[in-house]
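Prompt: Have a read of the protein record below and flag anything odd:
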Amino acid sequence: MQDFQLFPAPAKINLFLHIIGRRSDGYHLLQSVFRLLEFGDTVHIRPRKDGLIQRSLAIQGVPEEQDLCMRAAKLLKQHTNSKWGTDIFVTKRTPMGGGLGGGSSDAATVLLALNRLWQLDLSRTELISLGLQLGADVPFFIFGENAWVEGIGEKLQSIQLPSAHYLVLTPQVHISTAEIFASRELTRNTNPTTIAAFLRDLVHNDLETVVCQQYPAVASCLEWLTQFSQARMSGSGASVFVEMQSQEEAEAVLARVTERRELQEIAGCEISGFYAKGLHQHPLHSFAT
């Protein structure tokens, strides 16, 4: 559409996820490493001088009042009393409900982009505080670097990660994150780990066992991917990933899934996938200081 500016909203994967406790208010305490990917949605933004905030194109299955991009823009306008408005729509590429942070990343991109377009000059810390009101993963994308994550997801420490190639597969099953975290089978007492242990790959995803018991398609994808390297689930799923040696190898394996459909019959459902490099920094990192 005319006059819209395009801003990237990268996906992320959890390289591991430990649940180490539970607060009195029910929130789970976790440890994880979040990695940004060179793959994601595109947020289209056009500033308005009349102060209105409008969604130009709807996202199927997402009512406007639940749209994180709309909520982010309205929250920023309310917080700053800005006279500006905006038109927004999103080109979706990140699978919805896959544990890849798509909606959270979209919201973070809205906050970062409007911070510049509306000439607000809010600090990264202030934007992160606003982002936390929208969802636990939003602050990470505003933080804008690969991160060692603790607490309920709000404690972020920059971590340097080597360059890497990833193949990500998403079976078409809907997983309720709330139900997985509420499951009686979920262990919540994993001993706290360290960055040194992570670098030696002495980590896992505590949610995998529960998800695989309830969603056999996820288990099938993990088992099939493990023939290439150690496969893991991202967040609460349904997306799973494996690190590959090169783009060529990743694309060859992806073709076996999307073109030759080797895995669909085993998993019992449709499976989408993509290849992505790991990013070292969010493309809009410079939009806040």
Remarks:
- The first helix runs from residue 68 to 80.
